[in-house]
Amino acid sequence: MRDTKESISPSVLKLLRDRFDLTLVELGRESEINISTLSLFENGKGNLSPEAAHRLEAALIQALRKIEEKERKEAERKRKDVLKESKALRLSMPELSANLVNYAVGVRLSKEEMEDLKVKGRP
After folding, report:
1. Closest-CA residue to 27 (of 48, 3, 2, 6)
2. Whole-model pTM above 0.90?
3. Vertex 81, ends 71 and 101: CA angle to 5°?
4. Are 70 and 77 a contacting pair, CB within 8 Å?
């Protein structure tokens, strides 16, 4: 097992908890660490055993995976919405349509490619 100091510092725990929007109750439940122990550790007034540090790390990884999945689903929903709007604008506003596609897929087209899309998009 790794030393607690190698695993996480109290300030990093607080930062991650804030960024992951995790309460001490939620983190305690997921890591199976007493809330008081987590609070003391986070405030620099206590230590975690190597086993507890390992469980804490696993719980934080799980929280990150949940956030990643939620963000991935939201990004996919937005991408589909933008592509739908792009298709609706293809003939009437081809340049805007092409820019929406770029935005949706995260790719920048060259001016030549944009011109090509504009020409192909016209009736």
Report:
1. 48
2. no
3. 95
4. no
Confirm or reject CATH 1.10.260.40 for domain 4-71, answering yes or no: yes
Q: Give the C-alpha separation, 99 to 109, whole Å.
A: 8
Cα–chain-centroid distance for residue 75?
10
Tokens of 65: 């995976």
pLDDT tens-digit readout, 72-94: 898 888 878 887 888 888 778 88
Contact yes or no for 39/24 (Cβ under 8 A): yes
- Whose CA is closest to 10, among 33, 55, 54, 42? 42
Domain boundaries, the chain: 4-71
